[in-house]
């Protein structure tokens, strides 16, 4: 088997990383029109969800998709409102899982009401993150796909010149991608995996908040108080 062209791994933060990453897309894949950049978040709230559209309907050559039926669109607008502070919600929901001073029936009632609202906020945080991660995966697919394509082309070239005889597998593509572009491949894979891990953490947080509601409800039951 002929040697696969290798690129020397550079130290993180090397000045040429950005240029080389761009070269992947310039040389390995056809140029595609760049998506319109999203408008900045409202002043004073850098953690607000991004707006879906940055261009006027029809400006990109494609018609703007229709909104949902009005009643549902109101819910969508409320869930993904521009003033929603993701970092603030994350901190408050996480810290709010601890129940304090829930000793008397009145305090238990207040705790139950508070935990129900917390569970609602935790679920909203999860669905906002789910949509954001889905958008992130689409936006990074150009780089991820370009490196995979380059690896696949290298393997097919090896088959064409008879230096490779076995069928190309998914594992072969991943291994070759890491050999050809070690820095860029490690970076894009780590970023995508961390986004998915963050989403899994928020899903777990929403489950914990919901479970806490049941815990407080059981504490308020007559059998629990008599015990």
Describe what this molecule looks like in 3D.
- The chain is elongated and about 80 Å long.
- The protein has helices spanning 17-28, 70-79, 86-96, 105-160, 170-180, 182-220, 222-226.
- The longest helix has 56 residues, at 105-160.
- Helix 1 packs across helix 4, helix 4 (105-160) packs across helix 5 and helix 5 (170-180) crosses helix 6 (182-220).
- 12% of the residues are buried.
- Helices cover 63% and strands 0% of the residues.
- With 227 residues, it is mainly alpha-helical.
Brief digest:
The protein is mainly α and about 230 residues long.
Please outline the helices and strands.
Elements (H helix, E strand, L loop, with lengths): L16 H12 L41 H10 L6 H11 L8 H56 L9 H11 L1 H39 L1 H5 L1
């Amino acid at each position: 088997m002929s040697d696969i062209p290798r690129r020397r791994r550079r130290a993180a933060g090397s000045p040429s990383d950005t240029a080389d990453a761009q070269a992947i897309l310039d040389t390995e894949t056809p140029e595609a029109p760049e998506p319109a950049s999203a408008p900045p978040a409202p002043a004073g709230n850098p953690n607000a969800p991004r707006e879906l559209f940055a261009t006027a309907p029809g400006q990109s050559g494609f018609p703007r998709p229709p909104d949902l039926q009005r009643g549902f669109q109101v819910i969508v607008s409320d869930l993904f409102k521009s003033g929603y502070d993701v970092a603030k919600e994350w901190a408050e929901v996480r810290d709010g899982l601890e129940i304090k001073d829930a000793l008397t029936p009145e305090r238990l009632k207040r705790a139950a009401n508070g935990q129900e609202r917390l569970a609602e906020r935790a679920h909203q945080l999860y669905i906002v993150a789910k949509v954001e991660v889905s958008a992130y995966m689409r936006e990074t697919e150009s780089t991820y796909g370009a490196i995979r394509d380059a690896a696949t082309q290298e393997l097919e070239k090896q088959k064409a010149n008879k230096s490779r005889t076995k069928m190309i597998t998914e594992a072969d593509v991943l291994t070759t991608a890491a050999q050809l572009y070690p820095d860029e491949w490690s970076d894009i894979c780590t970023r995508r995996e961390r986004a998915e891990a963050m989403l899994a953490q928020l899903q777990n947080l929403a489950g914990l908040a919901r479970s806490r509601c049941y815990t407080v409800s059981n504490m308020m039951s007559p059998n629990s108080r008599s015990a």
